[in-house]
Specification:
248 residues; alpha/beta; seven-stranded parallel β-sheet; 8 helices; 15% strand; binds nicotinamide-adenine-dinucleotide
């Protein structure tokens, strides 16, 4: 029997790099996986062995409720929620005084509001079942305080607080809530954004000077959702090669 046999996992941002990899890993470990994304996730469904995919803007409460409702009517349960959706690819890295208010809202909402709405949508079925695992994607930039990315860093720091507060509210119902805070992951988009010199600098700043892969992040998420983390909640796990060892 595999770790997630008989379980249903929802992965948001499932059309993207880390979402796909996480979905594949959860499916390999026996979960029935549903991918939700504002971009069409059908190729990702095919590639990862997920059972279902839906297009939804997860900043819109009606669309979140519709998509989670569809998962519940198909499968009758949600055991795992991975709040992975969020804008960072293509977001301009500029001094904070040049960030427009609309861009601020888009970046913060896609990362924070989406996680809030998805957690809210699964709270009732998880509380009724008296079990569940939620993993939110933060970033180690929330510890570094990276320059020229204030909207994103602020959003990812908010995810840490949200994780702790959700863990307090849902823990008594048997639901654990944790976060994973990756360093820069070797995905095509991140490589392009950092350029070869930027990438070498990032990896050189880690204790373990191997590139961080999508698979490393998927493994950490699966650990936090799996039986080995039975009594772990409210934590933010830095998966960044030891680049910093901040106050999470
Ligand atoms: N890649 C990294 O180096 C890295 C590092 C730290 C944290 N993270 C976090 O991990 C997560 C995944 O990163 P990734 O590299 O796979 O990014 P990605 O851009 O490949 O995937 C993110 C997905 O989220 C979706 N999305 C964005 N806004 C949405 C919305 N409103 N509704 C529904 N879907 C929406 C996008 O369409 C995209 O498919 C993000 O939260 C990111 O901030 C990534």
């Amino acid at each position: 029997m595999t770790d997630f046999e008989g379980q249903v996992a929802v992965v948001t941002g499932g059309a993207g790099a880390l979402g796909r990899c996480t979905a594949r890993r959860l499916a390999e470990l026996g979960a029935t996986v549903a991918l939700l994304d504002v971009a069409d996730p059908s190729a990702a469904v095919e590639e990862t062995g997920a059972g279902f995919g839906a297009v939804a803007d997860l900043c819109d409460e009606a669309q979140v409720d519709g998509a989670i409702g569809e998962v519940l009517s198909r499968y009758g349960r949600v055991d795992v929620l991975v709040n992975n959706a969020g804008l960072h690819v293509g977001v301009d890295r500029v001094p904070f005084w040049e960030i427009g208010a609309a861009t601020w809202d888009r970046v913060v909402e896609s990362n924070v509001r989406s996680a809030f709405l998805c957690a809210k949508a699964v709270a009732s079925p998880m509380r009724d079942a008296r079990r569940g695992r939620i993993v939110n994607l933060s970033s180690d930039t929330a510890v570094f305080g990276m320059a020229n990315f204030l909207h994103y860093v602020t959003a990812k720091a908010a995810i840490v607080g949200m994780t702790r507060a959700l863990a307090r509210e849902l823990g008594p119902s048997g639901v654990a809530v944790n976060a994973v805070a990756p360093g820069a992951v070797q995905t095509p988009d991140v490589l392009a954004a950092l350029g070869p010199d930027g990438w070498d600098e990032v990896v050189g700043g880690q204790c373990l000077t191997e590139p961080i892969t999508s698979e490393d992040i998927a493994q950490a998420i699966c650990y936090l959702c799996g039986p080995g983390a039975r009594i772990v909640s409210g934590q933010t796990l830095l998966v960044n090669g030891g680049a910093n060892m901040g106050a999470f």
